[in-house]
Write a structure and sequence with these properties.
Order of helices and strands: HHHHHHHHHHHHHHHHHHHHHHH
Largest sheet: none
Mean pLDDT: 81
Structural class: mainly alpha
Strand content: under 5%
Distance between the termini: 85 Å
């Protein structure tokens, strides 16, 4: 019975340690998550900045897994190369050891003050950031409390023959210690918690330094397994490059450290007599040396991973770029042609959304509207891929003409993506409101809206042709379409006001919705014109700076 009670107590203290670790991680993520992600994204320009960014962000988050997920998101989206992302992970592995260094000192007496201070901060609901930081401070208090309780509990089992037998059986085979710690770390999702547990065992003399270091190696290996096993890949091997690359570096480091564990144990024992400090120092030294050894070889290592884990080309997935050939970037004119071809795919997706929205003027199919909104994700993905591809071309390799064409492609892609946002966030919700409230437009109202939808599709085709031809006549023709939509909005607004004056409550709601839809169509049309017509006319000196008359335009702006 005493054994069962002791086992439950041990499990409870470990659970408190894990929960405290989680509170620290989630509190930091809630307080600073977006800022840390932005900081990390900006720092991924080279391997050394990326290393320091990974170290800093992980030291704050206390989760190399969370940092790895951010870096994986950047790498999978093509926003950064694999090499700086691998450097981030090397820094993250070092950063996660810093909290272990702090807790290796005797700071257990601070836990009541930390819990009290955290509680006071947590009750400050008026300031969300202080509220979240209160969660962090409470979590640190729980971690110290759990470590204090674990040390007290270990004292009770110092003379236990059963525990001594189990630990000695594992100690005879270091690989068993590595595997045990790896499994525990994978299950706990926290190398910090497992290393702190190992420190507790070493402090009470239940394991010798040699076995403690073997267990630390296992914890380092186990924490790199989670992203590989649990990461969502959607069958694309390319998304596994970063987590597998990090796992492989850890595996190589663990094998090398195991082969030299005896002299390493002697060296670490000479540096510190404190078992707890020795474990913390070994944990930090292992990750720091691993970073130093791999840092010079990250580029060939990244190339090897790219070769071994090729990206899956799924022609059926419309959100994946089809024409952005990485090899073409060596010849900018070819790369610009590929990007132009990819940009035209945005017009195909936008046309499908406009035609689907036209059908929703009279249809009551909510599912069709939901499917249309998903297409905006395709526009977002393609726009991001085009921007990333073009901005990765060496600027020293392109002349003024090519740079101008690059700007035209970026402007075209950006405006079409924004037109898709208007559809997704404004037009489609308005049409969904009509279906949800059971409203029906009059026959003349439907005809007017469908006519504008048809005109918008024609303008989209004209914009695509103008994007490729840069013809001034087409630009003038497309720019003139802005007057058509402006007139439709003005006339519809006047008709809506007239209904309000007459008190036609039965048509007032549909009239307001009709006006909202026309304004959305006008906004989409404006993006088409800004994407293609205005750049051509401005280049030819044919674009006025203001719609004001010449007399008014001479007056100073207020």
């Amino acid at each position: 019975m005493a054994f069962i009670i002791g086992l439950v107590g041990l499990a409870g203290h470990i659970a408190l340690l894990l929960w405290g670790t989680r509170m620290v991680q989630t509190g930091i993520q809630r307080a600073f998550g977006p800022s840390l992600r932005t900081f990390l994204g900006r720092a991924l320009s080279n391997r050394f900045k990326a290393f320091m960014a990974g170290l800093g962000v992980t030291a704050v988050l206390q989760s190399s897994t969370a940092t790895g997920l951010m870096a994986s998101g950047f790498a999978a989206g093509g926003l950064v190369g694999l090499m700086p992302a691998l450097s981030v992970m090397l820094g993250a592995n070092v950063g996660t050891t810093l909290i272990v260094q702090v807790l290796s000192f005797d700071v257990a007496a601070l836990y009541p003050a930390l819990v009290l201070a955290g509680f006071i901060m947590f009750k400050r609901n008026g300031n969300p950031q202080i509220h979240d930081l209160g969660r962090v401070v409470i979590g640190l208090g729980f971690m110290l409390l759990a470590l204090h309780q674990l040390l007290e509990m270990m004292t009770q089992y110092e003379g236990s023959e059963a525990l001594s037998y189990v630990l000695k059986s594992i100690a005879t085979t270091p690989i068993l210690s590595v595997l045990l710690a790896a499994v525990l770390t994978w299950a706990a999702h926290s190398s910090v918690a497992i290393v702190l547990l190992i420190m507790s065992l070493a402090t009470k003399g239940l394991i010798d330094p040699y076995q403690a270091f073997a267990l630390v190696l296992g914890a380092n290996l186990g924490t790199s397994i989670n992203p590989v096993v649990e990461g969502h890949s959607d069958g694309d091997l390319a998304s596994k490059r970063l987590p597998l690359g990090n796992l492989l570096t850890r595996f190589v480091g663990v094998v090398a450290a195991l082969a030299t564990l005896s002299p390493l144990t002697a060296l670490m024992s000479m540096l510190s007599d404190d078992a707890s400090r020795s474990v913390a120092n070994f944990h930090t030294a292992f990750n720091l040396l691993l970073a130093i050894l791999f840092m010079p070889f990250l580029q060939p290592y990244a190339d090897f991973l790219v070769k071994m884990l090729p990206q899956r080309i799924d022609d059926a997935d419309p959100s994946k770029p089809r024409y952005l050939d990485a090899g073409a970037k060596e010849t900018p004119v070819v790369a610009l042609g590929a990007a132009s071809r990819e940009a035209l795919r945005l017009t195909d997706v936008l046309r499908e959304m406009i035609i689907g929205a036209k059908a929703a003027v009279s249809s009551t199919d909510r599912r069709a509207l939901a499917e249309l909104r998903k297409k905006d994700n395709i526009l977002d993905s393609l726009n991001t891929a085009i921007k990333t591809y073009l901005t990765s071309i060496d600027p020293d390799e392109i002349g003024d003409a090519d740079r101008g064409r690059m700007d035209e492609i970026l402007l075209f892609s950006m405006n079409l993506e924004q037109a898709g946002d208007v559809l997704d966030q404004n037009l489609l919700p308005h049409l969904a409101k009509r279906v949800r409230r059971g409203l029906t437009f009059s026959k003349p109202g439907q005809d007017e809206l469908c006519g504008l939808f048809d005109r918008l599709v024609t303008n989209l085709d004209t914009a695509a042709a103008l994007f490729m031809s840069q013809d001034e006549r087409l630009a003038r023709m497309l720019a003139g379409e802005k007057v058509i939509f402006r007139r439709a909005e003005r006339e519809t607004t006047a008709a809506h006001f007239d209904r309000l004056r007459r008190g036609g409550l039965d048509t007032m709601e549909t009239s307001s919705l009709h006006l909202d839809i026309i304004r959305d169509l006008k906004s989409i049309n404006s993006h088409l014109i800004a994407a293609t017509a205005y750049p051509v006319l401005e280049k030819q000196g044919e674009l006025l700076q203001s719609r004001l008359s010449s007399n008014d335009s001479a007056a100073p702006a207020l």
